[in-house]
Amino acid sequence: MPSKLVQPVSDELTSTATSGVKALDLGAMFGRHAPLEVDLGSGHGTFLLEMAAKFPERNFIGTEKYGRRVRKTIRCAEDRGLSNARMLKVENAFAVRLLFPPESVEVFHVAFPDPWPKRRHWPRRLINRDFLDTVHRALRADGELRVQTDHAGYGEWIEEIVSKRADFTRLDWLDDPDYPRTDFERRFHGQEFYRARLRKV
Ligand SMILES: C[S@@+](CC[C@H](N)C(=O)[O-])C[C@H]1O[C@@H](n2cnc3c(N)ncnc32)[C@H](O)[C@@H]1O
Q1: 73 lines ligand 1 (CB under 6 A)
Q2: Which residue of the set 11, 25, 79, 114 is catalytic?
Q3: Cα gap 125→59, rounded to integer Å
Q4: C-alpha–C-alpha distance, residues 74 and 49, integer Å
Q5: Which of 34, 110, 172, 198 has its CA 20 to 30 A from that of 138?
């Protein structure tokens, strides 16, 4: 039975072809208009679903490349009766560039993206200048990008890119003990993370 929580995105969309791709119709997808938060690389969906439960007046979309994690998240959302969460099986950078209409997203979350520690793999890192350009375009005025990584080298890499930009300003990290944590955040509890909360100027 097709679930209303399933928002399939064809694997074709993960190809490099960029023409003819339609942005999401967010109103139709959720059946309402509400502030949207997007969790890029949502893993098993723990954070996404806790956020959806805590903020029912907001809409949430998770993006994830592994179908099994997408399906698990959808199952859990259904079990918990969360009607404000959707999943896309899609590549992160592609989704930000092409699927979210301009000025449609209130918050992008990027929690513990793959660090690609080897120098020759650095071009694969999600966060780069182009990515920030596309995030900026998709964010609403005053929208935010929240990034966390446990990998010091990736943190330095992000910091260097961000420090050159005047189109984001920095905010203090959220200091709320009840704010949902991602699986990786819990796993690395007690360690120092690189964290950046960047508001669109
Ligand atoms: C290290 S895990 C972090 C998961 C979660 N954000 C957390 O903090 O617990 C990274 C997740 O991003 C997904 N991922 C990695 N590269 C991706 C890409 N290019 N597009 C979509 N998902 C991706 C992985 O499959 C994995 O589930």
Answers
A1: no
A2: 114
A3: 27
A4: 9
A5: 172
- CA atoms within 13 Å, Cβ hemisphere of 73: 33
Element (H, E) at 162: helix 152-163
The H-or-E segment that residue 143 falls in is strand 139-149
Q: What structural domains does the chain harbor? A: 34-200 (3.40.50.150)
pLDDT in tens, 11-36: 444 434 455 889 999 999 999 999 99
pLDDT digits (tens, 9 = 90+) for 54-69: 999 999 999 999 999 9
Whole-number pLDDT of residue 189: 87
Helix axes 67-79, 46-54, angle to 10 degrees: 30
Is 45 touching ligand 1 by the criterion CB < 6 Å? no
Query: Cα separation of 48 and 61, whole Å?
Result: 8
Q: Quote the pTM value.
A: 0.92
Residue 93's SS3 state is helix
